[in-house]
UniProtKB/TrEMBL annotation:
Organism of provenance: Nitrosomonas ureae
Pfam families: BrnT_toxin
Name of the protein this chain belongs to: Uncharacterized protein
Entry-linked InterPro entries: BrnT_sf, BrnT_toxin
Amino acid sequence: MHFEWNAKKAALNYRKHDVTLEEASSALRDVLSATTHDPDHSENEERYVTFGISSQGRLLAVAHTESGDRIRIISARIGYKYREENL
């Protein structure tokens, strides 16, 4: 699995959500993570949200796309905050 992301979006994500996309990649490696399709944001490409525990021990919600063995991380935030904002 290879992770990639846009450096400018990564900096913005850290300022906005206090989560680095490097930490987000560790949540995607969590063997107990759960992934769901994100139809609300899949107009131009198939997007997914994965909930997993990061290397820092935090529950994260990670938005991403997949293409072969490449995963492009779009954004990440604390998992419970994602739930509060999207319910």
